[in-house]
Design a protein that fits this description.
Layout (H helix, E strand, L loop, with lengths): L13 E9 L6 E9 L2 E5 L8 E12 L5 E9 L2 E8 L2 H7 L6 E8 L2 E8 L3 H6 L2 H4 L7 H8 L3 E6 L6 H9 L20 E3 L2 E9 L8 H14 L10 E7 L10 H11 L8 E6 L1 H11 L11 H28 L5 E3 L7 H18 L2 H10 L4 H14 L16 H16 L11 H16 L11 H15 L29 H25 L6 H13 L1 H15 L8 H14 L7 H5 L19
Helix pairs in contact: 8-9, 10-11, 11-12, 12-13, 12-19, 13-16, 14-16, 15-17, 16-17, 16-18, 16-19, 18-19
Length: 624
């Protein structure tokens, strides 16, 4: 029985140990759910054979403070169409009904015949970490990305620059959002304390400031005070992780640094601004390149040179002018070690944006806790290599470290182990996936079946390797060309098998077969995510696009090569219990080997037929 007490008698905070959703008496066919606690979102799953119910256990219990938002997002099917329900909880009521003495409490509520049970625990996060292994086995495996998100749920950046310099376009392209800066639609208006966020990318918090223009001397003090306040905040999430100081590349003879900007850079050089990284961003680099290209048009000495050679000459000339009019004056004011990047948001210069975010991530890594650097990589959507790097960092923290010895997964069901690995990898890629397709039961089963298909498929020649980017583009284009029509369904060539009824329901144990499958799941899923990154271009995910990514990866030579690498590695193992370090190294080696270079992305995307403009389709097309 739940005790009804005044909220003031309850110790703060509460700890949520589980959420249970029972829709057995409802006419709604709930397909998936997501619980949001504070700024952290977590999927609730329906395991195979679980019936009309979903459950999520939190291990360690997740903290609920009195001011936190707490809601449940349900997706259900009606007449073959997806519908959504948002259920908002009132934390104050939970504190009021939570007993002060019981070790475990329940908060029960109903919504349209859907029964929702929230379980609370008196065990704190610190106490759970101190429990022995036998007690820990009573809790569900917790994704490492959840732990990182509790410490640093968002990447926080301040962007400084005059109106028209290209800040909005820069943010939209790097972080995959649209119109993140509302102040950009109102020239000259920017409140530095306003937190700009976007539903398209919940991992980003943005602050905007106009540049240090003549007559705006107060803005330097505003920016300095803001940075001082933020760097003195105790919580990593509240601290400012980076500053982008944006300038449009001027013409030769134009003034580059205003007096206020020089003062700001001097403050940074002298240490007044503390450890917050300041990266100078030189925008509209494509205009400089075009200008340099035009200066070569009338040069008769270049007759006979190829277009590529002339393009390289224009680039070298642009670099020389950039050094003269921008970088030289910049280093004079800020020192030679000031990080800077030239960028263009034009389609054929996407590698410049990847270079900028790589510099930024490196600076954050050097000055903040590792969680901030990981969140920088999660928030950005232009550098697939940083996504793979962050996946490795997340995996190394816990679950990838003991795949061979089974210490982390001991006595766990294989499906539960795969779930936590899957959740971490998908969370790092941070696609715009409002329908949670990547966390769905259908997609998880699809990846398991893909691993199973590759296990029994032909073995590739380990002495022959191919270039993953161009191989994948060719495969994608081939699949699209082979469709009966532009809206024809995409079929992933994986037959139904007994795989989901057998090994995923077994208890994890030390064996060569289990190690191979787990290594395969990690690497194959990561490379499917990379393929999806190539296809999606930060657009809303559809099942059609996801199926195309899986089908393309499965049909490409890469999937067979990866499987052969893992098989060859496993055959060379002798004592599994001592293979954890080598296993982790092999996973990292294979993932890095098949990583697509950011410089190739725009070139590769130009060769892919459009995917996202067509209507979505179900996971499986019903046979007539």
């Amino acid at each position: 029985m739940v005790n009804t007490l005044d909220a003031s008698t309850v110790a703060y905070p509460l700890y949520i140990s589980g959420v249970f959703v029972d829709f057995s008496k409802s006419n709604k066919n709930v397909k998936s759910a997501e619980v949001q606690i504070g700024k952290s979102s977590t999927p609730i799953e329906r395991e195979p054979g679980a019936g009309k119910a979903l459950r999520r256990t939190f291990s360690p219990p997740t903290e609920l403070s009195r001011g936190d938002a707490f809601s449940l997002h349900l997706r259900y099917k009606r007449w073959s169409r997806a519908k959504y329900i948002d259920i908002i909880f009132e934390p104050h009521s939970m504190f009021r009904v939570c007993g002060a003495t019981a070790e475990r409490q329940e908060y029960i509520t109903f919504h349209d015949k859907i029964r929702i049970v929230v379980n609370f625990s008196r065990i704190t996060t610190t106490e759970v970490e101190q429990l022995g292994s036998s007690s820990i086995n009573n809790f569900e495996l917790q994704p490492t990305t959840d732990e990182i998100s509790r410490i640093c749920p968002q990447f926080r950046i301040l962007v400084i620059g005059k109106t028209g310099v290209g800040k909005s376009s820069l943010i939209n392209h790097v972080f995959g959002v649209e119109q993140a800066l509302a102040s950009h639609n109102m020239p000259g208006r920017a409140d530095i304390d306003t937190e700009f966020t976007s539903l398209r990318n919940s991992r980003l918090v943005l602050h905007d400031s106009k540049g240090f223009e003549p007559g705006e001397e107060d803005n330097l003090k505003i920016v300095r005070d803001f940075i001082d306040r933020r760097r003195n905040m105790s919580a990593l999430n509240d601290q400012l992780h980076a500053v982008w100081l944006c300038f449009e590349i001027p013409r030769a003879g134009g003034r580059f640094l205003e007096t206020g900007t020089e003062e700001f850079l001097t403050l940074k050089r002298g240490g007044t601004l503390g450890n917050i990284p300041v990266v100078v961003v030189l925008t509209k680099y494509d205009i400089l390149l075009d200008r340099m290209d035009r200066t070569l048009d009338d040069d008769s000495s270049l007759d006979g040179l190829s277009d590529g050679a002339i393009k390289e000459l224009a680039k070298n000339k642009a670099e020389a002018e950039l050094q003269d009019i921008c970088i030289g004056p910049l280093e004079k004011s800020a020192g030679r070690d000031i990080p800077h990047a030239k960028i263009s948001t034009k389609e054929d210069h996407q590698e410049t944006l990847a270079h900028l975010i790589q510099i930024t991530e490196s600076c954050v890594s050097q000055n903040f806790a590792p969680e901030a650097a990981v969140m920088t990589s999660i928030a950005q959507r232009v550098h697939p290599g940083l996504k793979i790097k962050a996946s490795i960092e997340v995996g190394k923290r816990k679950y990838w470290n003991a795949l061979a010895s089974s210490t982390t997964f001991k006595n766990r069901k294989t499906w539960d182990c795969l779930r936590v690995l899957h959740t971490d990898i998908v969370a790092v890629w941070n696609f715009y996936d409002p329908h949670h397709y990547l966390h769905s039961q259908e997609f998880r089963e699809l990846i398991v079946k893909m691993v199973d298909k590759l296990e029994v498929g032909p073995t590739a020649d380990p002495t022959k390797t191919i270039a993953i980017g161009f191989s994948m583009v060719g495969t994608i284009a081939g699949i699209m060309a082979a469709l009966a029509g532009p809206a024809a369904p995409i079929v992933v060539p994986i037959a139904a098998s007994v795989v989901l009824a057998v090994w995923v329901r077994d208890v994890y144990q030390i064996s060569h077969a289990v190690l191979q499958r787990f290594m395969s799941y990690i690497v194959h899923l990561t490379l499917v995510m990379q393929t999806l990154h190539l296809i999606s271009e930060s657009q809303e995910l559809t099942r059609r696009g996801i199926k195309l990514a899986v089908a393309s990866y499965l049909a490409s030579p890469v999937s067979g090569e990866v499987h052969t690498w893992i098989q060859e590695y496993d055959r060379g193992l002798t004592i599994l219990e001592r293979a954890d370090r080598d296993t982790l190294d092999k996973i990292v080696e294979v993932m890095q080997f098949y990583s697509i270079d950011a410089a190739q992305m725009s070139e590769l995307r130009a060769k892919i037929p459009p995917v996202g403009s067509l209507p979505d389709e179900p996971w499986e097309i019903e046979k007539s």
